[in-house]
Structure formats: structure tokens, C-alpha cells
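User: Please predict structures.

Assistant: First:
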Amino acid sequence: MPDRPFEDLNPHGRRRFFAAGFGRLLRPLADYLESRLPIPLPVVRDFLRPPGARPEKDFLNTCFRCGACADACPAKCISLMTSDDDQLRGTPVIDPDLAACVVCDELACMNVCPSGALQIVDRFAIRMGLARVNERVCVRSRGEDCRICVEKCPLGESAIRLAPDGRIEVLDPDTHSGLGCVGCGVCQFYCPTTPKAIVVAPN
């Protein structure tokens, strides 16, 4: 803005003068609040990360996108993401509709990860997600004795079971003393219905 006396400015120039001054006044306050009160937004995603994955923000900052986890996976369930987003491109994901994590004995993906994006945890401490049952879609609601999800689960009845009333019951690890669903997706993979009656919601 030209260095002119305030009284010589037209109304438009006066508005710009006040706006610039107001901005300079508030900028230190905004910077202070941003540094003192960081409010991270929740990261929403609709895909599963491999077992042992750090929280999403840390995972994205840590992962080398090297593909070692995908190469080591005995179930070949890990693929590398294609995306227009540079942060997501090349990161490992699991789509249980195509192939599910089998919670292998060697916990291979965690053990070969060179970056620490996948941390080594006990198989019962894995938290990829939580399976949720849609009772209206499940064939058991129509009297069929399907129990594929229970029979195929690599953790067995410590994660999913038939409830006394005959419904499929997924055990939430937050309320079952260390046991419960780890979100591997095996139940979703083998579920015979379309759409799936049981789907893993990512953590």
C-alpha cells in the first residue's frame, strides 16, 4: 500500500489499511494458539493396515514404503496402495475381501519392517480393527447353521463365537481382558453373503 496519510485514502484504501493492521495484530495470537493448543483432527480411513501398525499419522511419517512387509507376508494379503495422495501412495494395506491376514506364527510383516512403522507385538495384542456383524444380512438370522466366521478365525473362540441365543458374537478386546478380535479380516474374507454380513472396521 502506498505510504499516504490516512485521511487521504479513499474508502477502499481505508478498509485495506484496517485489514492489514488487524491481521498484523492477530497473527502473533494465532501463532501462539497454534503452538500451544494443537488440535489434531481424527484420521479417517476405510482400509486396514498390517498388524502392528503405529497410529495412522505416525505410521505415514515412519513407513519407508519399501514393500518388505508385502514381500514377506505368507498369505500374500498385503498390497501397496495406489493413490494420488503422496502420503498414501506405496503404503501397505489389506483388503479382506481379496485376502485376509492369517495372524501367522512368524508375524512376518512386523519382523521384517525396517522402519518401525510395524511394531512387533504379541498376536493377541494386534489391533488392526474390529469385526462387526450385520444381523439382517447374516444367514443365521434366517435359520441357517452357518458358522464359517467362527471356524475360520485364526484366534478361534477367544475372538468370535456363537452367543447363547445363536447369534455371532465378536469379542471386543477393550472389554474382554486382553482377548478379542484383532481385526485380521479372515471372517470377512470367508463370509458367504453378498454384501458381507461381517466386516472389519479399521481402528
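Second:
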Amino acid sequence: MRRVGLAAILAAVGLAIVYLLGAGHSTSRSATTMHSPTAAAQASADALGASPGGEPQAAAAPHTAVMPASQASAPRNVMSGAAAGTPASAPSSGSSTCTRPRYTTSDSTWWDLSPYFVANDMWNVTGYRVAETLHACSYSNWYVVATMDNSKGDGAVKTYPNSHRDFDSNPEISSFSSITSTFAETSPDRGIYEDAYDIWLNGIATPGSTEVMIWNDNHGQTPAGSLQATVTIDGRPYAVWKTGNYIAFVASTNFTSGTANLLDFFQWLMTKGWIPDNTTLGQVDYGAELVSTNGAPATFTFSDFSVNAS
């Protein structure tokens, strides 16, 4: 989940929301939770604004949802490792596409490339043995090396490293004729995780907001809630899980790249009556929710990401 955001951090949103997952996304998950870009906060929701010509505008100051105070630390927007424009060395286990990272971090910080952000969202690492380092060449070309296990047997998601597009002025989805996103990932095929979109509608982890996930590559995870429907979008069948304001589209067959016609997903949700016709778009994230790498370092590579709306 956020989730996730960033440039000049607004005063922390008063709402404190957290979900601790059981087996994958278990029923203990809150439907209004934001993955935090610090241990406390998952990125902003600058929402996509439409100019008079209908084109997206750049994000303004981000909005930040925070975790409970007991888990919170002051949000930071830090470019650690290399300075902007100065390549850092990539480890030998790194990506074949991002060979000279411009941004590296081993904690919950993020790279501000407004309106895009790359976030090492280590939102639920307290009490677990987790090491995770993110290396980024751009918002569409980055990778993360993570080490964690499921020794507690609770199936809890620990981190959600991601790239996301923040939007401004909370435009209504109905005002767009097209909302698409491209993605490409390469994952290690071991451990417990899923590669997925995490999208916030009608606010960012606020009362009444809706979290929509699209799982394209699932390894041992189960969404929260229960199976409510099946649907074919972009020529691919999905099982649709739901509980409260949390909805997950889980691809019947794993795939690792493509173009997602997000507007089609949103319009289907409207026809089901699960979101209102005046629903607004807040944030589109893409990354990997990580539960376990079987206690050994594993590399997750992301070689494409974009969000386009008109």
C-alpha cells in the first residue's frame, strides 16, 4: 500500500492508519491504509490536475498520510548515496539496465522527480529482520535488493518499494478519456511477494478513500477480503477481491510487463457501484509488496513505469 510523496512535506495528516497483514493481504488489513515512504508515511497524493486542454499538470506540494505515532518518525526527503546527477556505483548484484544509479538509499526515503517519486517504502519493518537498498537511475528505471524472511509465520508485508505518479487538484475520473500506465519488472521467483499497482481514489488513506490494487505477478500472496467477481480487462482475466474500501484485481496468469488501461478498471468499478461516478484520482504507485526473500538477498528490477492521462 502508497502510497508515498514528497517535495515539501505538508503538516502530517491527522489521520493515523496502519494495516498489519496476516497471510499476505489478510482480512486484518485496513481498507484505508497508505504504504509509508518513511517508517511513518507513504507518499503523497498530489493528484493529477487537468489543464484547460485536459493534459495533466505537474504535482504541487504532496499530501502525506501518517502511521500511528508509535511507529512514526519524522518524514524525510533525502537523496542519499549519490548527489543528483552524480552516478553511484552499482553493486555486482544490481540491474542490467540501471548500471549507474543516481540515487541510493537503505532506509525509508525517496527521490523527488515531481510529479514522479521513487520511494523505498519500508513501512512495516519494526519487529522484523529486514535489509533493503534501493538504487534508481530514473523513476522508470530502478531496482531494489532486499533481504527478509517469514520466520514469524504471519505473512506480513514489510516493504513496498515503488515508483509513483502524484496528481494535483483531485480531478474526477469522469473528466478523462484515457488513463493508461506502462510497467515492466523482473523478479526473482522465490520467496513471498507480489508486483502490483497500488492506486488511491477519493483521497489518500482518508475516510472515504478507496485503495485499488492490480496484481500482475503474484508469488504466494492472498488479497484481503473475499472473492467477489471475475472480469477480463486488457484481454486478461482477473479475480476481484474486496473488503470495505479495499479492492484487488489479481491476474489469473502472471505477467511482467505491459500497458494497463486504468480507466477501464475504474469504469468497471463504477458499473459495479463500488465507487461513485464522481470518484477522483489521487495517486498511482507501482512496485513490489515484499513478505519474504527466504532470508537471502533478492533483486527486484523495474525497467518501465509511466502514467498518462488525457
